[in-house]
Amino acid sequence: VQLVESGGGLVQFGGSLRLSCVASGFPFSLYDLRWFRRPPQVTGREWVATIRNDEITDYANFAKGRFTISRDNAKNTVYLQMDSLKPEDTGVYYCHVFMGGDRQGQGTQVTVSS
Fold this sequence. Notes:
With 114 residues, the protein is an all-beta fold.
């Protein structure tokens, strides 16, 4: 199982970013995919959003109305469109699949300046 995130960067308050995660090594279309994030100086992670294999989505309260998770099964890719970004959205963002245990990529850094 391999998950490779990209699309992070430095953005100003109110800006947007689109994160991508390319997956391999498992039947992508059959699995629920998630995005988590780890804020700076925090050892734990926060759940951000889930897209199920039937494309039903769910979001953390802080993400509702600002973030959109989507998937392209033909490309084995899950996306996270993030709009109206705030400094508190700063962190490392990871895509995740539960497949015999937690699997996530190396993450992509998102930094939102005020």
